[in-house]
Amino acid sequence: MNPSLLDVRFLHADNSDYGEEWSGTRLNDDYHRLYHIVSGSAQVRYDGHDCTLTEGCSYLFPPTAHFSYRCPNYLSLQNVCFKMTVLGGVDVLKLQPSLFKVVRPDEDNMTTTMASLHDALGEAMTFADQITAHGRLFQLLAPHFAIDETAQDRTRRQSVVRLMGVLDYISKNLRSSIKVADLPDRAGMSRSHFVRSFTEALGMSPQAYIRRRRIELVKVDLRATQKSLALLSYETGFSSPSHLTREFRKLTGYTPNDYRRLDQPFE
Fold this sequence. Notes:
By secondary structure, the protein is an alpha+beta fold. The chain has ten helices and nine strands. It has helices at about 105-120, 125-140, 150-160, 165-170, 185, 190-200, 205-225, 230-235, 240-250, 255-260; strands spanning about 5-20, 25-30, 30-45, 50-55, 55-60, 65-70, 75-85, 90, 100-105. The longest helix is centred in the last third of the chain and has 19 residues, at about 205-225. It is globular, with a radius of gyration of 20 Å.
């Protein structure tokens, strides 16, 4: 995959020491985490997977529906939260094989680079700061993608690339009207071929993909604004607040109001 297609958005970075107070659960985080364990250890369970985080290793987490974490004693953690997609909003980890855990032989360099990334992510980032931050993140992520891809990986990525124009169109029009019937023409395919290709490449129908992307927008707005459900439903193409609530609950297990109430700061 061409790295120039990557779209990266930084959300949070932190370098902290924790004790037993580092414990809790996060729900429906639609972003990636890169954890570096400087010293100590912790237990994490995400989407049914259990893992122990150990000293001298980095961990690349995908977006998660359920993320529980616990420190039994002591943990020195460096972490950065970010979203990394390709044009059209497709999660990179769904297209490119990656390593969840990497033992870092360059431990001192890893620690220094993570610390400098944290320092670069100020509230008023200049253009130079943004270039620096992206470069450092890519440097940190590179070992997690040092893995051979399979023929199946290449085929699926090629399928998504063929749909890139449609995905980009959807991404740019999530807050306006999207006529699904018009999408095959944009892809240069017959309707049946388009639906089959889209479903095979993205794992869901075009309609389901658009609903999921709009729910992601709603989650961002619930976290960052106090917009009413009526306004959110209007802005994201749902017919009513009840329609938005119904679709939101299907994907997250929570109502929008519960999600807004339960949402926590980044961990």
